[in-house]
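Observation: inputs received (chain + zinc ion).
Thought: call the complex predictor directly.
Action: predict_structure
Action Input:
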Amino acid sequence: MLFKDITYIDENFNTVEHAYIGTKNGVIDYISTEKPDWGYGEVYDGAGKVLIPGFVNNHCHAAMGLMRGYGEGLPLQRWLDEKIFPFESKWDENSIYWAGLLGMAEMIACGTTSFSDMYFFDAVAEKVVRESGIKCNFDNPPICFDGTPLKKQKYFPPVDEMVKKFGHSKGRFLEEFGLHAEYTSTEPLVKEVAAYAKENGVRLHIHMDETKLEHENCKKNRGMTTAKYFESCGIFENNVNLAHCVWVEDEDIATLAKYPNVSVTHCPSSNMKLGSGFAPIRKMLDAGINVCLGTDGASSNNNLNIFEEMHLAAMICRGNTGDADNVSPKELFKMATVNGAKSQGRFDTGVIKKGNKADLVVLDFNKPHLVPCYDVLTNIVFSAQSSDVVLTMVDGDVLYRDGKYKTIDINKVYDKISYYLPKILEQL
Ligand SMILES: [Zn+2]
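Observation:
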């Protein structure tokens, strides 16, 4: 496809107008303000539109969309114990397939081209990702309190098989390894997870310091903060994506900053909705930590929309500090794109440059809330809505255009959800 006369965000996050951008064989093959001499197939009229790298939703539980609006008004621990865990015990391969597809459809329509997901049924996740065309780093973490060694757990063989198969994939689906959290594991298990990741060269995805209770209990029970504890267990010797980090202390930030392979994923909607608090993002950015953005599951958000996360991240930083320049549109946009790609180990995407994967999103700027436009990134962060997405492309394949899905039969998804959801609910 050749995007003609389009405004785009370049690799230095500057705005370039009236550009021609050509995609070929899944990559960005041409960038210039001059028209190319040869064809790139369909010519897309970019007048009034803005081309951006696709968003990376770096912490999600896509299938939890079926719990959107379920168990409202409870704090994290009661919400998990009384509502979420019982519901999750009723999943089967069919219900989770359609729930996963619903989540991916939602993300694709919101301009997300890649996401990091922590959940169950890895093989089903791989199938849904392949069929929908989105990119995904997936992990299925062990949860164990009884001292059973990792490799002796019933959980282990199928996950290990997925790691062997997809742990080093260069394709759309990449299997990671994970740890649900400090409070759902034992110290020997955490050490085994760290060692397994190192031995297999796979990435880790972990919830850390989401609530004050979690952070304080870790200090009480283990005599050190969660970050120090994970460091002592060897977790940070791997590529790690730490979700939340709301309650990290200044010393923890210094600890995390020592490891360039550690990323933090800020989930402002989820943290505020569950009353968990406000992550110290400015301090982490200043320490040089790779900070990304995530929605968390739609059950604690209640949607999978990165535009909202950029907007809320800005509002929190500024509102909490009284500093109207606390975090810039460029920093927020990087958190939503290239920082997430880096955390996922996908170094060939996240910015628009020649040779990178054609993971691209077109925004329609001919909207009342986007006029006038003094600065494109400011409008994207502070004014744009997910409904401004008119095209989502992954590896050069159009997945969504003008409200229509190319790879997902969305009406069938709705039908299947209305069939499977009551079957789960009647068992509860
Ligand atoms: Zn989560």
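Thought: report the result.
Final Answer: The mean pLDDT is 96. The two ends are 49 Å apart (CA to CA).
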